[in-house]
Amino acid sequence: MARLILFLVLAAGVAVAAGWFASEPGSVTVNFRGxxxxxxxxxxxxxxxAIAIAAVFLYAALSGLISMPRRVRAWxxxxxxxxxxxxxxxxxVAVAAGDARTAEREAQRASRLLDAAxxxxxxxxxxxxxxxxxxxxxxxxREMLARPDTxxxxxxxxxxxxxxxxDRAAALAYAQRAAELRPDSSWVQRSLFxxxxxxxxxxxxxxxxxxxxxxxxxxxxxxxxxxAALLLQQxxxxxxxxxxxxxxxxxxxxxxxxxxxxxxxxxLAGLNRTTGRPRAARRVIERAWRSGPHPQLAAAYxxxxxxxxxxxxxxxALARAQGVRRLADIHPLHPESHxxxxxxxxDAKLWGEARSNLAKAERYFEEAEGAGGAxxxxxxxxxxxxxxxxxxxxxxxxWLALAGEAAADPRWLCAECGHxxxxxxxxxxxxxxxxxxxxxxxxxxxxxxxxxxTATLTALGARDAPQxxxxxxxxxxxxxxxxxxxxxxxxxxxxxAEGQETEGQATGGQATEGPTR
Length: 517
Hints:
By secondary structure, this protein is mainly alpha-helical.
């Protein structure tokens, strides 16, 4: 439309000029080398315009001839770039599809056509990885490191290469360099934290965790839980070195970071008791119990009620029962309060109180929706009552049979490998995953068998079921992060020693296992 308007305006201008020259013809006289030429003004204007137009066309033709080689080169470059981009796209599709041969062919073609563009180097490295040629992949990643526009991408590739090779020091160095280039990158901050943990650099891991939370790479709730686990690990290390006060301070920080953490409460209470602060230890357990009753809290609280003046085991058991009663009164209707009171009463031979609390616990599990059914621990305690009070072995055996069919007792379960443990660890002893243990009930065997098939059923008779299941996917190589604790699978938990309970004495980030009942 704009061009049409411009054409009409020019045409109108020419028509007006032609009309004006026609109405005002005038004349022009030219004297050139003794010759006199006379003509109309309009003719002169037309001649001048024709000469100008001819000059413009001549200039355009000459400039076109002069620029022809450059334009041909630009066309060829565009054509090569177009072919290279198509090869690059086909190569990326081949990498995604796992076609190593096609990926390599398209990578070579794209590299030749695109002159080592960043994506071309990445495609070449990925095609080399598909073929298992780690040396070639590393060569391409190192080429990326040498270019400012691909250094960050090369760092990530080298970090992954170092991780596969098990070179944690090199991986950590690459992650630190990547953090200098892109401090706001989420994967960089997470990698720094994870590599610091795997290397056992707990202080550096805490600093990396703070940066990751601040930049949004890790959410605040998860960050608080991870920080508590890091502080508990540092507390364990400090106690092993003989720095008890430092260990207690770190445990206190861990409990402040995660106020509802049972491991942190057990750790701080145990250190308070070890350093001669029994009242402080009891207060820690009581505050944790208010947040949520837990069997290991009750098991740790009972011995704290002993004054040391009891002259016999019966007197000590009675003192423990009185202490557990004070703790249970904080949550008098909670089933864990009933179970803790029943166990302490059994130790003190208070048969009536033990039966009363077990009946209340059993009624709770029968009536409460979503409770998951009575745990095996309840029926084992009922069996103890029958055997220890009345000597009725037959009735005790019936209760134990029900225990074998009841819901599994809660324990510390790893969210990564599924192994169960009686005590909490900062790092899972089974898969070395950091802060992956959470208190919960293992899945029922029927559900596990339905998902896992015959391999699960075969593993039921073996205590070392994780090794049997790992033939297809071996577990990660163990590290030095945790040296104690043996994994116990949810599959084999009902074959554990009958009546085994945790005494829950918190001597650190870990609680010691109690005697078998």
